[in-house]
Amino acid sequence: MTRTEQLTRPRSTPRREVLVSGAGIAGTALAYWLNRHGHAVTVVEKSAAVRGGGYPVDVRGAALDVVREMGLLPALREAHVDLRRLTFLDRDGAEVASLHPHAVTGGVPGQDLEVRRGDLTDALHTAVRDDVEFVFGDSIAALDRSGHGVDVTFHGGAQRTYDLVIGADGTHSRTRERLFGPEERFHRYLGYCFAVFTMRNTLGLSHETVMWNTPGRAAALYAVGDGEDVHAFLTFARPEPPMAALRDPEARRALVASAFADAGWQVPGMLAALRDADDLFFDRAGQIRLPRWSSGRVALVGDAAYAPSFLTGQGTSLALAGAHRLAAALAGGRDHTTAFAAYEHALRESVTGTQDLAGRGGATLFPTTAQALEQRDDRLRRLVADRLLAHRESQE
Asked: CA-CA distance, 171 to 286, in Å (whole number)?
């Protein structure tokens, strides 16, 4: 069946029709819950298939209850990457501290999950693919909200009317732009840029992360398991976002190489791998802070509405909890205006509190001054010493 046939064939049921833009974590989870509540759901995704790969993500707090209720918890526990050690290095590559990641992130051992992004999206898609219409390789070209529904024109040429449209299309959401205007109005830049890519595991790392710091710069190698490849992260402070580099792949590589030109440790090898990486992801660290998450019959969920930034470690959990809450608000045929208001009221305080954690994450992982870095390293050394003392006392 062609995309146009998928998007133009008539419906035989009177259920409320909802279009979800984006088949990532937020969009696919929302499709699952909307279907559970009796809605007819279509998910449109510009990629040709469900996106695999990606670096690991955390599932915590209320999001654990969401995946448990979806029946996904056993599979995700099987996919848990079980990171066992986080080691911080100084400018010369000497060890500052080595400890369990939960000691730094505040995670709960035995409860919180860390899984590859692709494993989570695959699990979500498998849970709903037989009940929801997925259209890959297409996206929304225009929204007309002047009638009783939302008239949608797709880039593939099809046109269709939906009762509701939900943007789950990420931090750089085009749905949000159509509703509220350019991203720059709502993007809060946090002062860092980062590049993520895969490279060979030349250090033989296993279930661990090693992070090298100098003031305003960090290089990290993240070994999910015992494989031949690791995730490489290069993060650097920059007062203003490099807008030109965001649009030009070669400019991104040049900017990162310039920022780390004199760096030691494994960074020269990382820069060499960066030049040839075919999976490079580059962006500025930032948040989306909107005064409201809906307009008329169109609403936003996940990073499109309230991206907290990777510095909080909570983006995936917010996406899962937000999708569950939005679908619950729309249950029972509730008027969309009332439902969207209830969704926002239920989540706003939690979202704001999570976004406010970004400063703490930045201070721990990416100190920008020599003094801040020295203070961070002292805290880490004390933390290691305290844990060693507590362990010895427990053995006596």
From this structure: 9
